[in-house]
Amino acid sequence: MIIQCPACSTSFSVSSEKFGEKNRKVKCSRCYFIWTANSSGKAIEIPRLYEPIHSQGDLNKEILNKNKAPDHPLPVPVSENKSEGSSVYSLISLFIILSCLAGVWYNRLLLLDVFPFIKPVLKIVDPSLDIRGIDIYNLNTKSTVIGDKPALQVSGSLINQTPYKRIVPNIVIKMVGNNDSVLRQEIINFNDRYFLRNERYEFSYTFVNYPDQSNKIQVEILP
What we know:
Layout: E1 2-4, E2 11-13, H1 16-19, E3 24-27, E4 34-37, E5 43-45, E6 76-77, H2 83-106, H3 108-114, H4 119-125, E7 134-146, E8 149-160, E9 166-167, E10 171-176, E11 182-188, E12 194-195, E13 200-208, E14 216-221
Antiparallel strand pairs: 1-2, 3-4, 3-6, 4-5, 7-8, 8-13, 9-12, 10-11, 10-14
C-alpha cells in the first residue's frame, strides 16, 4: 500500500502486513512530519502545519513506481504515547488512597480505641469525636419539695450506641428561662468511667429553690 506524507506529499510504499491492522502514528523520513494513518495508509489525524509547504525546500512530487524500491527510507513508526496508561494508573492510585481515607474515617472510633495516641490528629477533622455515638436516653423531670423549698429532680441516662468501649462523657444540666437565658446550671462529672456497647449510665441531679421563671431543662454532652 502507499502512504503519503500530508506535509511534503512524499509517497512511500509500505507492506500492509508489516504496517498492521490498527491505526498508528508515522513520521516522514524526509521532512520528519508526524501524523496518524489508518490500516489502509490513509491519513486520519493530521496535526496543524505551522509552516507552508514551499518553505520546506524543493519537494517536487514524483510518480511512484510500485515495482521500484524508493530512493529514500520508509516512514518511521512512532511509539504510542503511554500517557493514557499512566492516567489510568493515576486514577486507580487516587481511588485506592480515597478508599483508605474513607475506611479510616468510618472506623475512627475503633482506631481511637486501639491507638489512643492518634486522638489529637483525629480531633482536628472531627472535634466531636469524644461524644460521637453517645446519646441522652430517657430524660425525666420531677417536681418535689425539699426543706419546704421547691425542688426539681432531673434524671436520665447516657447510652453508648457504638460497638466500642467508650469513656462516659461529662454532661451539663441547664435551667433555661425566657429568651433562652441560662438561669442555673450544673456540670456532672463521671471521672473517666467507661461503658460498653449499648450500655447505659444513669445520672440524676436535684435543683433546690430554683428560679420561678425557669420553663425548661436542657442537658448537653460535653466533649
